[in-house]
Amino acid sequence: MQAQLEFYEEMERQFDDTRQRLQGLKQELSAYEKIMSLLSDHINENLNIQKRLATNNEDERKQTIVKESYDKLLAKYDRFRVSKMDREDDYKRLLSQKNQLESTLNSMKTQIVSIKKLQEAQENQSENIRPKNQHQPQQSDPAFDYDVETINFLNECNWNLGQSCDRNLAETLLSCFPNGTFLVRSSKTKQNSFVLSVVVDSKVRHCLIDKKGDEFCFHPPGPTHQFYATLCNLVMDYRHKSLVCHNPELDTNLIYPVLSQLKKTSKSSPIGVGKGVATAQFN
């Protein structure tokens, strides 16, 4: 994730630098046009003088002086013309570079927003995920000898992305992970409700979770529906049984909290988190 952010920031820096250089070149080209316009006026005026001197049979010395002045003006104009053409080539090259950078930034924008939201969620994780009782059991207490996978489930920040996640972001995050990878997010269309987004048969599916009073259950409730005191209890229960109990098309358990999967992927591949999120290559 960090590599992607650094790459994106470097692209932004190059984009800003290129845009500033384009502005400078644009001002230079404008100045060249004004100077060349003045030189052109002087050249035309000189030609008129030469014609008048020739018509009036003026002294050849005068005609020679005017002709020499004309040649100097013409040479100066030609130097400015060549220099202006070089600047125009630079401008076209930088404009093409700017457009490429802008295209790269736009293509990465969605995934960068996703990564920043994930980082924000990770930063909000609680260091102490164990229940806080007045009489805290010692770590040797078997009731608190949780394995890593259980800890990942108990730590709600590993799968509950709340208001920071919508349907599109959920599908982007989950699309690169195996079946059973899941997250829970706040519903954007139904107040006081949540959505379970989970990978089933390599597709991201969504289930609405209603909050009835102080309890939670899937919507619509099935014939054997069950209410849970917390979202964590619901998630823990479906860790051990298939969602097919709720929907025949959802034949999977909740296996991998999305943030715990993302951490594993980030450690093994610092470049990206999979085809659903990372598209840029870093060499």
From TrEMBL:
GO terms for biological process: insulin receptor signaling pathway; phosphatidylinositol phosphate biosynthetic process. One of its GO terms (molecular function) is 1-phosphatidylinositol-3-kinase regulator activity. Keywords: Coiled coil, SH2 domain. Residues 120-142 are annotated as: Disordered. The keyword Coiled coil applies. It comes from the Eukaryota. Gene3D superfamilies: 1.10.287.1490, SH2 domain. GO terms for cellular component: phosphatidylinositol 3-kinase complex. Residues 159-258 form the SH2 domain. InterPro entries: SH2, SH2_dom_sf. SUPFAM superfamilies: SH2 domain. Residues 8-35 form a coiled coil. PANTHER family: PHOSPHATIDYLINOSITOL 3-KINASE REGULATORY SUBUNIT (PTHR10155), PI3K21B, ISOFORM B (PTHR10155:SF10). This is Phosphatidylinositol 3-kinase regulatory subunit alpha. It comes from Aceria tosichella (wheat curl mite).
